[in-house]
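User: Here's a structure from my thesis project, written as structure tokens. My advisor, Dr. K., wants to see whether a designed sequence matches the one we expressed. Can you design one independently, without my sequence as a hint?
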């Protein structure tokens, strides 16, 4: 019985390790669905993080927006090179842009057969990805900035209450 309660206690603590949440509404975009995929190592039940998938829609003009948030050691980190290579290869310069969003390294993928995608390296174990065929580069960046700003607000409040 003690082992059972210890396991429950560990589960509660580990579920609090990932406190970043995606909002219900971002500007005119409203949440229509999503799910969370926990990443647990089957052999040891080790918590390796989670992947959050959220779908947002807007009515005017009609559009859809997908946000994927990966957190934890099991999700890996986002590699953002210092510059896009000019030669042909996996990352043709015409299909990628590298820049910063709120001081975080980011990469924008623009391929004709895929929705426009922006990936932001929040830290070593957290990556925010926003995809939409309905938005342009500036609109994706604006949404990423809004999400990152809300997380900074939460972080600032938590640090203020701990002081």
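Assistant: Designed independently from the structure alone:
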């Amino acid at each position: 019985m003690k082992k059972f309660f210890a396991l429950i206690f560990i589960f509660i603590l580990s579920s609090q390790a990932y406190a970043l949440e995606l909002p219900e509404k971002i500007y005119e975009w409203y949440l229509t669905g999503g799910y969370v995929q926990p990443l647990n190592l089957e052999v040891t039940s080790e918590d390796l993080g989670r992947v959050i998938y959220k779908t947002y829609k807007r009515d005017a003009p009609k559009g859809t927006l997908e946000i994927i948030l990966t957190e934890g050691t099991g999700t890996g980190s986002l590699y953002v090179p210092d510059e896009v290579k000019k030669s042909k290869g996996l990352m043709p310069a015409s299909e990628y842009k590298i820049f910063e969003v709120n001081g975080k390294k980011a990469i924008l993928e623009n391929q004709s057969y895929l929705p426009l995608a922006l990936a932001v390296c929040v830290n070593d174990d957290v990556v925010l990805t926003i995809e939409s065929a309905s938005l342009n580069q500036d609109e994706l960046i604006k949404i990423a900035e809004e999400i990152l700003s809300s997380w900074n607000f939460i972080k600032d409040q938590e640090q203020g209450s701990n002081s």
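When you compare it with your expressed construct, this may help: Helices lie at 2-15, 137-162.
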